Amino acid sequence: MATLTLAELATITGGELYGNEQALVTMVSPMEKAQDGDVTFLSNPKYAKHLADCRATVIMVKEAQRELCPGNVLVVEDPYVAFAKVAQALATTPAPAEGIASSAVIADDVDIAEGVSIGANAVIESGVRLAENVVIGAGCFIGKGAQIGANTQLWSNVSIYHQVVIGSDCLIHANTVIGADGFGYANEKGEWIKIPQLGTVKIGNRVEIGSCTTIDRGALEDTIIEDNVIIDNQMQIAHNVHIGYGTAMAGGTIVAGSTTIGKYCMIGGASVLNGHIEIADGVTITGMGMVMRSIDEKGMYSSGIPLQPNKEWRKTAARVHRIDDMNKRLKAVEKQLETEQDA
User: Fold this and answer.
1) Beta strand 72-75 with 16-18: parallel, antiparallel or unpaired?
2) Alpha-carbon distance 306 to 296, whole Å?
3) Quick check: is 239 catalytic?
4) Quick one: which of 1, 5, 154, 256 has the most CB atoms within 10 Å?
C-alpha cells in the first residue's frame, strides 16, 4: 500500500497546502465515504454543502471553497485533475509482468533494452525492438519487426502484428489486436479477391487503448494514431484511419477506412463514422452518433432518436417513412400559395 504525506501531495498536484504537512494518506475516496487516512476532492460545487462534515485527512478544492473545509486543505487549480494525479501516485495496480518468464519464446535477434519484462508464454518474433522498461504481459504476440517504445505496457494476450510501431509511455489493455489486415477486397464476377494490406499501424506516445479493440493496418499507407490519444474498449479502427493529437474515443465506436479525425475531438460511445471523410479539430460527437459526411467546423454534433415508449416510437417511425411524401405535398402547397400571391 502506497503512503504519501500531504507535503508530497502538494508537490504532485502543484497545490498550496493549508494544514499538517506530515499527515499521511493511503487512498483516494469519495467525499461522503472518506475517513482518516483518505484524500478526497470537490470538483462539482453543488456538493460543497458536504465539506463541513467530511472526515478525510485532506480535501482538494479550489480557492473559493477553502474556508468551507474543517481540516487540512489542498488548494488546487483543478480538483479533478489533482485527483487523477494523486490516484496515479497511490495506485496499487500490479505490472503486467515482472522479469522475463522462462516460458516466453523470444527470437535470437530481438533487441531487448534494460528493464524489459516479458510474461509467461509470450511470443516475440524476429527483428522486434523493445525499448527501456517495456512490459509485455502473459500470452502476448509481437510480430516480426515490430517496435515498442520506452515504458509502454501491454496487458495479457495483446497481439501486435509485423512492422507495427508503438511509441513510448503507452498502455494497451488485454486482448487488443493492432495491425490486423484491413477489410480490403476486389470483386471479380462474384468472387472476392483479397488485397494485401501493405501498410502498417503507427501509434504515438502516451496513447492508451482499451481491451478487445482492433486497429487495422493500412492498405498502401499507414494507419496513424497520434500522441496523447485515448481509445476505449471494443472499438474498430479500420485501415488508413488517422486520429489526431489529444482525441478521446468512447467504447463501441466504429471508424471506417481512410477517415481522418482531427485534434482534440471527443467521440461518444457506440458512434459510427463513415469512410473517406474528415472530422475537423475540436469536434464533439455525442453517443450513438452516425456520421455519414465530413464535419468542417468545430462544435457539438448529435444524431439518432432518443428512447421513447414503444407506442410513441412506432408512431415516430411511421412518420419518418412518410417524410418524402409529406415534403412533396408541402412543396405543392407552397407553389400553390406563390401562384395565388402572384395572381
Assistant:
1) antiparallel
2) 25
3) yes
4) 154
